[in-house]
Amino acid sequence: MLSSYPILSTLIWLPIIGGLLVLFAGRNNASAAKWLSLATVMLTFVLSLPLWFGFDTTTASMQFVEKVEWIPSFNIYYHLGVDGLSMPLVLLTTFTQVLVVASAWDVIKERVEQYMGAFLIMGGMMTGVFVALDSILFYVFWEALLIPMFIVIGKWGGPRRVYATLKFFLYTFFGSVFMLVSFLYMFYQSGSFSILDMHTMHLGMTAQTLIFLAFLIAFAVKIPMFPVHTWLPDAHVEAPTAGSVVLAAIMLKMGGYGFVRFSLPITPDASMALDWLVIGLSLIAIVYIGVIALVQNDMKKLVAYSSISHMGFVTLGMFVLYDILQNTGTLQGAQLGMEGAMVQMVSHGFISGAMFLAIGVLYDRMHTREISAYSGVVNKMPWFVMFAVLFAMANVGLPGTSGFVGEFMVILSSFKANLWYGTIAALTLIIGAAYTLWMVKRVFFGPITNENVENLQDLNKREFAIMATLAVAVVALGVYPGPLMEVMHTSVENLLIQATTSKL
Amino acid sequence: MNFVIPAFAPAIPEMVLLAMASFILVADTFWSKRYQFATYYAVQATLLVVAYFIMTSFATSQVITFDGSFVRDSFADILKLFIILVSLGIFLFSKEYLLQQKFFSGEYFVLGLFGVLGMFVMVSAHNFITLYLGLEIMSLSMYAMIALRRDSSDAIESAMKYFVLGALATGILLYGFSMIYGATGSITLPEIAKIIDSGKADSVVLSFGVVFIVIGLAFKLGAVPFHMWMPDVYHGAPTAVTLYLGTAPKIAGFAILYRLLAEGMPGLVGDWQTLIIILSILSMIVSAFVAIVQENLKRMLAYSGIGHVGFLLLGILAANPDGYASAMFYSIVYAITGVAGFGMIIALSRTGNEFDKIADFKGLNARNPWLAFMMLIVMFSMAGIPPFIGFFAKVVVIEEVVKAGFTWIAIIAVITAVISAFYYLRVVKAMYFDKTEDETPLAPVSSQLNWAVSLVSIALLVLGLMPSSLIELSYQSIGIQ
After folding, report:
1. Which DSSP state fits A160?
2. Selected residues 148-177 of chain A with any CB under 8 Å from a CB in chain B
3. Predicted complex: ipTM over 0.90
4. What is the three-class DSSP state of B237?
5. I need a surface site. Which of A375, B24, B373, B455 has the fewest CB within 10 A?
6. What is the Rg, in whole angstroms, of the alpha carbon atoms belonging to chain A?
């Protein structure tokens, strides 16, 4: 069987060890560092594919499980496993890693080995976050990956990088410590740090409410949700391209993943009682942040705000389930919303990654991200603009792209919950179209007004390959999302049952 | 009345230490002219020999000797072994530092060895007199060590400050002892515990005694509001002495805290727990904020040390064996991390430049990427970020606080951890993101120092990945699990 060797451990430790090797081997040899990194991420990606093909879609229990004692006196285990909720995110991580290495190929000139090494180590830790089934192990990965990200933004970022990276680190650290206290409290109550045990333990309403709020702070900062989103535009704008890609494509997903892995199953009653809070913040994010995106002059900032707005769909789709249950008495509609949220996470991973890479392509040539510095790029870079417009359309949610699937499912299910939720969420189709297409118009079309644009070169082979891969992913997921939904179906069903079973 | 000859065997490590320290003290005057390093090697060899004695006769049960004034148990043995381990590191770093700063002298090592003896006696103390004796042997050695650099007015000032305040603290501690003695009529810890439990002692006098003892200990440990001496002394002392002050004594300090409060006065937990809570919270908060504005790394580490004491006290305030075990684990981790932190300053310092300002670390990544990476590990470990051992130290004490029902204190603790992350990040920022202002190339780091500092730093990572043995050691030695 495929599960006979520790596939998840391989996916965590291969990039980390590879990253350390790159750090040492590549000190004075940039090309060795690059090729070693590429080999590592390719190998990791290939090794992650058995997860997809060997996955049993009929069960909601954990698969590819590894469990070894780690700290026996505290009942802490090195416990890994994936289900339908985490498996797609693991693949998204390994896939994004390949793009990250490829995107930095000619761009990073200074200390290449540290840059690549940091990203490889981060990659392994991100996989660790998605597959950890012990809360302390989860927390270790969750926190540890702040370190390489801190270095990456602070070292290779833009002019205000130090401010941005400190803000990023302290915001996320602040959010997560409350989660840690919750874990410790639950360990004190149940004697186990296992996430699966936490799913079944009993908790009183006060404890649930406090734990729910602690989780909310941790995950809301990471997603990020209004009003703790302010670190994201700063971090995105200052981060190097690959840093933005990893932030948007994967790190933000950790917050969403946290809700489905921790908040909903561990504190179902508190989630039900406080779902209005999350829904309210999500709707504010969708509309208000969307409007803010409209007035941005910096392309990266615009996409960063658009990310926050799109992540609002994820949280909305996750938390409408209680209203739907109340209105219709069944979980059918809630299933739609939850799956929509999960699809939206994967799809947003592709789209936001692609958008940031596209901006990176322009930035590498012109060294500015000001929208006003560009005009008429299509005349000089037709291939690039073809891809960029496709990604922009996917960002808007055009049918046939992956952006459509998730948003549509979430909007549909929120109509079932409450007419107003649906209406407000649907507004994004207008706002999203407005800010995205307006940027497309200003940057890509129109007359060439700037002599630098006159000298632009179209995509080289490397960039073309990156863009084409992402384009295929976006369209494939948009046209045929069936397999992805099938993978998560059973797990989502199970999650909904957990989320609606009272623990009082 | 017969005089019973006490069992000497349990105290062999202390006796060896005493004999060797006295011998080396005398011998040093003769051989230091011809063989510069003889004292250094003799001291290191003594430590190894003592470690060997402890390991071969490792205490599996409690042995009390010298008429109840001296105790040997696995708790003491484990702490002594760690004191030796840390001291070996300290002396290794110090040797290079003293050479470099051109005031190499055998006295440093001899005094250091006497200090270790003092710590041993503290760890094994079973009545007030032994405890006081150990504390004073250690403190007197440290006063002298700070003043070793006679040409530095900063060092002399530090020594004076430390001496005056240390003497005051000792006085307060002794006053507390005398009150407890007055109330209970005993100076032996378990007997005091028994008399307190029986309820025969005057509770007002006992309460006063506890307050004075806790204040005296807080002075020695440097807990807020009795911390004022720490930044000045850490800053003014030569780095090698700061390294000594800031590491091994903390283990011994934890030990006397445990002996006095947990073994001697468990019945008065209602009195001292509140005091410890106040000390702990104040230490964490004050250190988190004040450390942010420090420009000198030694000063910053002093404030960070105050914060660590606050965290260590978290384990004590839980007032149960698990809690003490977590504090023990914390003190060991803290001492090891301290060796790495101050060791890094020593490794980078050179004649005429102590390399103790945060600005000195600017651009270190470009100048020496390996040491910058090691320093990054140390800083993140101190900040309590996984996967380094500092994280588990914090998790374990906070877990015990939550278990004891003080979740609100746990929340204060984690918030201060976030605030203090900022000043550790400042050092990382200086190393990785800033450009150096000092164009003179770094002095080559001696390979011995390079190895030593790398070894300690990497140990922080390895222990962080595999913390279970160290945690278990602490928990087993306090006698549960």
Report:
1. T
2. 150-151, 154-155, 161-162, 165-166, 169-170, 173-174, 177
3. yes
4. coil
5. B455
6. 22
